[in-house]
Amino acid sequence: MLSRILSNDLPRSRVLAAILVALFLALALTPFLIPGVKALNVAAKVLVFIVLVASFDLLLGYTGIVSFAHTMFFGIGAYGIAIASTRMGPGWGALAVGLAVALVLSFLLALAIGLFSLRVRAIFFSMITLAFAAAFQTLASQLSEVTGGEDGLTFKMPELLSPAFQLMEEPLFGVSLDGRLICYYLLFAVTVLLFLAMLRIVNSPFGRVLQAIRENEFRAEAIGYRVVVYRTISSILSALFATVAGAMLAIWLRYNGPDTTLSFEIMLDVLLIVVIGGMGTIYGAAIGSGLFVVAQSYLQDLLKLASEAVAGVPGLAALLSPDRWLLWLGLLFVLSVYYFPTGVVGRLRSLRMPSARDRRPSGDLVENQ
After folding, report:
1. Helices (H) and strands (E) in the chain — how many of each?
2. How is the chain split into domains, by residue range?
3. Which of 92, 102, 205, 222 is found 20 to 30 A from 184 (Cα to Cα)?
4. What are the tens digits of pLDDT across the range 334-365?
5. Left (φ > 0), alpha (ψ -120 to 50) or beta: where does 279 sit?
């Protein structure tokens, strides 16, 4: 049953399986285990990045396509929700219309990029997608009447998702059951469904063809697969998943602006997370997102505690200053790449216990030959 749910792509490592279960339980129980606004915001951001990074890995890790336009689709989803909610008012209809329009726009743009650009090789395709992303960010910044310009758009959610909504008057295990909590578990449910959907896609015959194209594009084309068609479909699917991730972030923040979803820094974060978690593994998107977002959110707090603990040592206290958190985050990334060159998932899978056949003495193999 579990194998069927996970599309026959089991973790293949007890340690990896334990980490995935721990991550699932941590995200499911965060509101009750770590009460507070910051913890809930961090957990929600992890959920959004799991979908966003997994959708990008569908391109980079499974198809071998390096695209810098991924945040464009992320922004389209967020702006779809923001613009519809601003124009139509808070309501489920506005969310449905905004998401539908965003998905259609992302589909058309991904199709255009796929048809006109995927025949271009390597770095040239990356530059074309970068140009698309930069143009869209500029457009979003200048169309202030529609997008709010640099200030962005602030909007309201349906009453059920509003912080003012109370499901129960009495707290449950000390946690208030309000609209914010309902919104979080809505994101949690959507993330789980999309994660399983992407896991199914990459383990389907379609996903196997994508991996064949990644390994040897010319051989895949020689045996009859239309490489451009498969790469275009992969680009479209990736764009649609990224659009939903952007919509999730907008629903959670109730705000969207150019720096929130269209910033190139987000694109760099996605690339880092893919490398940390492991390219070509949907599980890596989940683990990498959890590690990166938590480190990014709490590293300053840890450095502040460390700096105060060594306050008597001037040089060391300055080195551990919270203002230098980016330095330490970069150092952690370098170490993770050095010790986990195939990502966390790849490393853990390579360390799994050998099977009974692998443990047979070499003499037995010789005798059987």
Report:
1. 18, 2
2. 2-354
3. 102
4. 887 787 778 888 888 887 645 444 444 434 43
5. beta
